Each structure stands twice: as structure tokens, then as C-alpha cells.
């Protein structure tokens, strides 16, 4: 499939961080992008070049309208972890994609998924969506990412990193993890949409290097030019903080991944795949140090005047 052919892409989740990164990259490469949002127009993040309709994944007609005329689709589910609701969303998406004759749908599971069933809603609802999409017969490529570097450039991590040299995250320090950025995800989605012969495949995408917590801190230290130490944050504490932003149900869903990892049941779940996905997609994740040097960390500095100036620029 030629990358030069303009695609008409239905992007589910474009008003979120991950889907937004995908939408931006697609528009940069002159593809037409449409999305759907329940938010009123004034409450949506700016997405230049993206057509956004008001609607709900739970309403089949709204989803059919989104997919009307689409040649391709990129899907990430919202932070919803109720099985039947996710099943309904996935069914509406699958039926709309089939009806529109979508040539390929790329599904970002938003997490790795263990081989065996678990009691963790964050895994099992994403497994449900994947199964519904696959059973529909739509040409499908599944991407399962590990953890995003962008999680660390946030009001919860940035100040401690810049001012104290502390990288706190709810993963045990000895868990090997393949990190990637939202931009890396977008590159992987674009490749999964355009590279020939990928239909039916599932990729555990991630960084070229698998890092423990200490190794991640060392990479951040090199990027920031200062000593950084890793602090394993208790998943319970992480969940409590997240609930203030996302609400209790969504926070419990997200935190379920970290409770699972803390239990030590599957230490390698978030590790790399020995370059399989990078080779198939011809996409290399950005090295951690390089990603760190590109971020405007000064916005988290202690100096209020400096912080205000950086925020305005």
C-alpha cells in the first residue's frame, strides 16, 4: 500500500492524547481525518485539519456517520472499563467499518494484554474489543503498547524530576519495560495502516531498549543533565491521585494494570519484543534520552517567574 495515496481515516479517540497524536501525524502527511466526540465543540482540544462531529460510540448511527466514506480507521477505546459497554462500542465500530468497506483498521489496545484471562478490567475489556473487531472480518492490525514516556511529562512527575531529581512511577523498580512516546505510537499506527501484508497480525510495540526503573532514571539523568533516582510509587497512591483527575471508575481501570504488575505475576508483560514490531513496521522508537532532551522541562521549575514565562511561550 503506497504511503503516497491519500487516506480518509476515521480516528476513534482523536480528542485524547493517543488518538490526538495519531490524528496530528495523519494530517501532517496530508490524509483526511474525521473523528467523533461527546464534548461540545468549545470543550474539545484543538485539532487543526481534523473534522470532528458530535456523537457517541454507544450510538450506532453516530458511528456509521463517522465511518461513512472512510477508507481506513485508527481506533483507541476511551477510558471505559465496563465489559458490556466496551463490547457495544466495539460492535458499533466493527459494523460501521464493514459497512463502509474500510480497507484496514488499526486497533490500539492501549496496553499489553496477558495471554491468559485475568480479573483486570483494563486487560479484559481491551481483549473483548479486539475479539469483536477480529470476528467482524474487517482487515485488522492490532498494536499493543507498553507504557508512554508522555506520562512522565506531567504535573505529577515534572516538578519532582526537575526540582528534586526524582522519577516516581507505579511500576516496581525491577520490572523491565519498553517505553515509547505518543509520537512513536502515531508512527506505528501510520505504518500499520500503510505497510502491505500486515492484516491479521498483532504487535507488542515498544522502545528499542527494555529498561528497569533504575535504567530509566539513568536515561532521564543523561537527558536532563542531572542525577535522577527512581522511586517505585505504590499503585494505590497512584490510583488515588488519578481519581482526582479522571474520576474513580476510570482511575481504577487504569491503575488495574499497575496493581497487576506490582503483584509480579507477569514481569515481562511490558518488555520489548526483540525488534519484531520495529522490523515489520519499519519504525524505531525514539531513544529515551533523545525524547527527554526535546521536552520543555523548564515549565516545572521552582522559579514562578521562569515557570510563567515558559508557559506563555
From TrEMBL:
Keyword terms of this UniProt record = NADP
InterPro entries, per database record: NAD(P)-bd_dom_sf, NmrA-like, NmrA-like_oxidored
What single Pfam family name could you report for this chain, choosing any that match? Answer: NmrA
Reply yes or no: does the keyword Cytoplasm apply: no
What domain of life does the UniProt record list for this protein's source?
Answer: Bacteria
In what residue span(s) does the NmrA-like domain sit? 8-242
Which family, according to the similarity comment? Belongs to the NmrA-type oxidoreductase family.
Mind telling me what this protein is named? NmrA family NAD(P)-binding protein
Q: Which lineage?
A: Bacteria, Bacillati, Actinomycetota, Actinomycetes, Kitasatosporales
